[in-house]
Write a structure and sequence with these properties.
single chain; Glutaredoxin; 6 strands; two-stranded antiparallel sheet; four-stranded mixed beta sheet; alpha+beta
Length: about 220
């Protein structure tokens, strides 16, 4: 009999390692489909909450924030592209891509969770930004993405044209910060066990089996 598994996936839609981590996790869950019944909820985290509406060139941003050289940024993008390919996700970002504010995307994700479409929207946002070069802070693009996964277009427009769910998203962000989450992705299993970073599929498989075994009072051999 499969065991229930609650997963809180704390992440930002502009975080490439979050996409790598998500698709690694999903592949792991597919491998373990006869062992676990997973419920994933995506929790908000903003890497750049003060970013303006026009965004910033990615190379310039990484240099300012982390002190990386353009060459180091390029090498990192190549590594991320390779890791994405391993889990079936296509990164097409380059040195001319931009970093954007993602708060409105998180508001839509909060709404999508209430509609039972959160994972579909999360995946669509990753693809729109990293694969298609879209702008996750552009209301028109966000509405189009939401509609594309079966969410109501007019409702999405109404949310983006107001402050709806802003308080809820800020509350959730502060909650996860207060629990010690300082980098993403952070994947929390059953509210107790955390795995950080864009881990390989086998790492997630091993961690989940260990967690399930401990929950049953056994050991993993």
């Amino acid at each position: 009999m499969s065991a229930p598994l609650k997963i809180d996936f704390v992440s930002d839609v502009s975080c490439p390692w979050c996409a790598v981590g998500l698709y690694g996790l999903l592949k792991a869950l597919d491998i373990l489909r006869d062992e676990v019944r997973a419920e994933i909820r995506f929790q908000p985290f903003e890497l750049n909450p003060k970013m303006g509406p026009q965004g910033q060139n990615i190379t310039e941003h990484i240099t300012e924030k982390y002190g990386s050289t353009p060459e180091q940024s390029q090498k990192n993008r190549e590594m991320i592209r390779a890791r994405g390919a391993e889990v079936g996700f296509a990164f097409r970002t380059d040195g001319n891509s931009r970093i954007y504010n993602t708060f409105d995307a998180h508001r839509l994700l909060h709404w999508a969770q209430l509609q039972g479409r959160q994972q579909e929207l999360k995946e669509a946002l990753f693809k729109a930004y990293f694969t298609d070069g879209g702008n996750p802070s552009d209301p028109a693009q966000l509405v189009q993405i939401a509609q594309g996964v079966g969410l109501d277009r007019q409702r999405a427009e109404a949310i983006l044209g107001s402050d709806e769910y802003a308080e809820e998203v800020r509350h959730e962000e502060q909650l996860w910060l207060s629990r010690g989450v300082s980098s993403v992705p952070t994947v929390v299993f059953n509210g107790q066990y955390a795995v950080t970073g864009g881990q390989p599929v086998e790492t997630f498989v091993g961690a989940i089996r260990q967690i399930i075994s401990e929950a049953k009072g056994g050991t993993v051999i």
